[in-house]
Structures are given as C-alpha cells and as structure tokens.
Amino acid sequence: MDKKDIYEHLAKIYLDASSKRKKKAKRYPRFKKFFFIGTAFIFGLAIFLFFSLNKNKLNAEIALILQPDVVKINFNFNPAKKEIYSVNLNQLDLTRFKTIGFNVKKANYKDNIHLRIEFMSTFKEKSEIYLKNIADKWQEYKISFSDFKKISDWSNMITLSFGIEEWNVKEKKGIVYIDNIRFLR
Fold it and tell me: Which among 62, 84, 65 has a CA at the least distance from the CA of 74?
C-alpha cells in the first residue's frame, strides 16, 4: 500500500464517520424544537397563572402602620370613669387613605365591652365610632373614614384615640388588646 492509498482510505473513513455524525445530529431536530417551545409555553403559563391568581395578594394593602406592637388597655373603673389610649398624629395628612384597620380582643370572655374609636383634627373636629361586643379572640376591623361623619377635612389630624368607658362595660376591671393599627388606601 502506498501513501496515496493510505490517504484515500483515511479520508474515506473520516468522511464517512463525519457524515454519520451529521445524520445523527439531524435525526431529531423537530423534537428539540417542540421540546423548547413546549417548555417555554408551560413556563409562561405558570408565570401568568401565578400572577393572575395572586393578584389580590400582590396588591393587598398599602398601609401606614402606626403601632407595630400590641397595645394593652388595662381598665379599672373604681376610681376612673374611662381609660384611653391615644396616638399623636402630629398633623398627619390622611387624605390619601380611606380606612383605618386594626385587630382587637378582650381578655375576659364573660365581659361585654364596647370600644370607642375617635379622631380629632387641628380644626377641633371630633368624630367617634363604637365597636360593640368585642370578641375574646383576635378580630380584624376595617372602618371607613366616611363613617366618621363629623370630620370634613382629613389633611391635619391631631389624635387617634381608643377608649373604654365605664358605662360601656359589664365588668369594672379588664383588659383590651389592640394590635396592627394602620391606615389603608
């Protein structure tokens, strides 16, 4: 065998082997294309469903939190006539908010307690609402600012007060807890 025959033989082996590889590579091009398109479609559908089903959770609440800790109103009406917890709002502009939200519970399940919520503005406008029959388990309340009828301008608010009055409780001693006080849009 001379050099020319060896080169031709090697070229034939090399070219045949490379053409077989090309044939194998071209064997499943449609499968790969459909696999990638299908994967992209399923991934896109999963993202769409996640955002559409969690739309309420993603846009849940835009809030201004006033008191991150639990407030404890410990009342004893032997010497006093009412117990009040006040938050100084420092002329806070509440025009961009629509409701107040908070959680409340009482310590004694037998007691019948009515909670007074009061706003006061710099213009000396006062308005209050009573929550009747506070539960002994955490209960969330959301009260619209429109329910506070006597306040016309929410741009300069001075105080927010939570109060318990002697004539609005059954027992003369008790505890009321208030948590997560916030203003909601």
Answer: 84
